[in-house]
Amino acid sequence: MADKKLTPQEMAQVNYLPPAGDWMDPTVEFKRGTYCYAAPLKNQEALQLPNPRQWNPQDKDWKLPLDFKQLVIGGMQERLDKFRSWKLFLDICVRCGACADKCHFFIGSGDPKNMPVLRAELLRSVYRKYFTAGGKALGKLGGARELDEKVIKEWYYYFYQCSECRRCSVFCPYGIDTCEITMFGRELLNLVGCSTEWVVGPASSCFRTGNHLAIPPHALKQSLEFAADEIEGITGIKIEVPINKKGAEILFVTPSGDFFAQPAWFTLLGYIMLFHEIGLDYTFSTYASEGGNFGLFLGADYAKSLNAKIYAESRRLGVKWVLGGECGHMWRVLHQYMDTFNGPGDFLQQPVSPITGTKFENARSTKMVHICEFTADLIYHHKLKLDPSRNDRWKVTFHDSCNPARSMGLFEEPRYIINKACNHFYEMPENTIRERTFCCGSGAGLGPDENLEMRLRGGLPRASAVKYVRDKHGVNMLACICAIDKASFPPLLEYWCPGVETAGVHELLGNALIMQGEKTRETDLRGDPLNPGAEEGKTDV
Amino acid sequence: MNNAVKILYPLAAVTILVLLPLLTLLGPSAEFVFAVIIPCLALAAFFSGFIYRVVRWAQSPVPFNIPSVGGQEKSLPWIKDDKIESPGNNWAVTWRMFLEIFFFRSLFRNSRADLVAGQRLVYGGSRWLWLGGLAFHWSLFIIIFRHLRFFTEPVFPPATWLTNLDSLFQFSLATLFLTDFIILISLTYLFFRRVVSPQVKYISLASDYLALLLILGVVISGVLMRSIFKVDVDAVKRLAISMITFKPAVDSNIGLPFYIHLMLVSTLIAYFPFSKMMHAPGILFSPTRNMKNDSRAVRHINPWNHPVRVHTYEEYEDEFRKPMMAAGIPVEKKQ
């Protein structure tokens, strides 16, 4: 945060007027609270990143390699030849500005370089200088500028102020996707050794331990046992949680945040209860104990490297197919990249729900099913007994997480589950949900505390919509299906609209799930007392 | 760079282009240059540049299947999927692209966000850009189509029909086509947007103004030579026909306004492949719009899918074997 804490009223005084002067002059001030720290040397080395060194964005000298210009320009050339998206998106923007107020970081900060168009122009201007005739000949008049250290600094600042949420790409008349631009920018930065700790740290942990949180296998087992104990306390049912079990039918992979951090933890309880209740033959894995993929925030190769464990582990364990938990960018990778990266998964079988017999046609190649698809199917076929009144203390709204929304189109399944598991559900305004959903402001590796002011600013549009339903309908629970959401919303909502909590969809399901042989529940999964009279009016669905 | 400069340079360039055809007054050989040589060079630049750019795009592969999804995916049979915004087959993609290209569907979605007191964001429809853009592009298309009457003898009937339709609402005195009127208004709107809106002004480059001013120059010169500085239309048509039959012949009484119009048009098409106007073919290549949302059902192949460094299970177990065994987690090798 800035030296003195800004109140929400102060932070919401956003000035949208661009500053005087030309954006092409790279000026960037690393203001406290609005940027991410650099990755420490040991983590850079763990991932074998280029130009490893100890440095900090506030340093005057970033200790870039002497030939950083050639490295970046060579990197551009290589990537232009490899990615049509990048070549095209650098060429065809007409700067109509339709994307400008679609970006949550622009809305929350007013910084014109957070307009998606200008974020891309930061790269395009350099591209023009070295790759187009007009830019070479006309220089600034042709919208072209030299690559220098200042430009690198500016890139670092602004490509880590984009959460790769793809909202602007929905509104762009040519589908220009700033997520692609940002990925491109970050890969180039990476070539000269500029990456952030909050991305590199988890990615290097994941490489070694199998998950972002660096949970070693024995600690993961303890954690799952602890979850089982908690479930026993709540329901009276003792559950064995399978780990690294060979020959299980299904491998379950979920973001590692679920293993430790609240409120994601309660979602984990929900999964384990659900799997027990339907008698699913599944297993957790310690090696592939991460669904999320911070490699994606560094570059395609790192994403591929971390993602490889899921197929490798399903092959080793001999499972039939893979089920994935609630997570945002994890599903970007699983849905749009995994099969291409590390497929074909032809040693697996087409996913079929062992309970309902439903064939998941849409996952017939990747062999990986989203937990919301799986659970919605169970409920639709009346395989679960639910008592939605156990969630009666919650007036629920649903936040579409960026990636399941705009990269997958997973809209109805989570809503279906919530509507069956809860009695009170209210949608946020239509400009802020489904394909038009707003990011929490902390996606794509922007979540560290040192970046809090920017996260809060980026979260303003989402929080504003939550506030709207809080004030109108008394909403006090924001349900979501993303681990970053679960980590970032509690402080965000506390700041902008106190009184609204955050939960995973499967936490709400776990509350409502009537389990065979369970004792009368006195508390919900959070350990808070259930509503008086909640046990009345049970309904089978 | 000062914003005024970004406008003044393109304005100066267009002014020079308007003045250059004065050289045709020198005589027939100068006329030949402006009537035949320059347009031919421009056409050559247009076609070669256009093809070069498109081929260059096509040469880069599409390594990943990355559509921007705007509607419910096809998943469970009882959940209705959005066929257009989450296209599952080539027909759906074609339809999505059709709506995008002919009706600017994504731009139609445009809204504006206003932050009002009390940290409230208010969203309003904002379709002026969509309307202005659509009006401009459609008018331009019809105008170009109308020009077919100069290049066909007998006139291509649809060109006549469209011309008649376009002149249904003739404005009393001058013979101003409806599309002329619309394109002037929409271009003026698109220009003023860039000057008036502080954000759009901030992002605008000289080339953005150049494109607008060039097209405005073409339209204005075209309108003026129809209504005020009349040129010999028959002579223009004879020139056009002679050109496309590769027997160029220039009438000496064709008139200066025509050369100004032709000079601006030639510059526009020669500039086209090197400018942002390439968004026209570009949209067809846009992977976020022209791909199917079926990446879990059908494997997308990345042609350069190179191997990367991975951490294998064996390496992992080697590091953690002892604590795994102590915790009772099954392992592959006991030692």
Written account of the structure:
The complex is a heterodimer of chains A (541) and B (335). Chain A has 541 residues and is mainly α. Helices cover 45% and strands 5% of the residues of chain A. Chain A has helices at 8-11, 41-46, 68-82, 84-91, 104-109, 116-131, 133-138, 149-159, 167-171, 178-191, 197-209, 217-235, 257-260, 264-277, 300-317, 329-342, 371-380, 402-408, 412-421, 452-458, 460-473, 483-496, 505-512; strands spanning 250-253, 282-283, 321-324, 368-370, 385-386, 396-399, 477-480, 501-504, 539-540. Chain A has a four-stranded parallel β-sheet. A three-stranded parallel β-sheet of chain A has the order 6-7-8, with helices on both faces. The model of chain A is unreliable at 534-538 (pLDDT under 50). Chain B has 14 helices and two strands, in the order ααααββαααααααααα. Chain B has a two-stranded antiparallel ribbon. In chain B, a hairpin with a 3-residue loop joins strand 1 (111-116) and strand 2. Chain B is mainly alpha-helical and 335 residues long. Classes of the chains: A mainly alpha (541), B mainly alpha (335). The interface between A and B is large, with 127 and 105 residues.
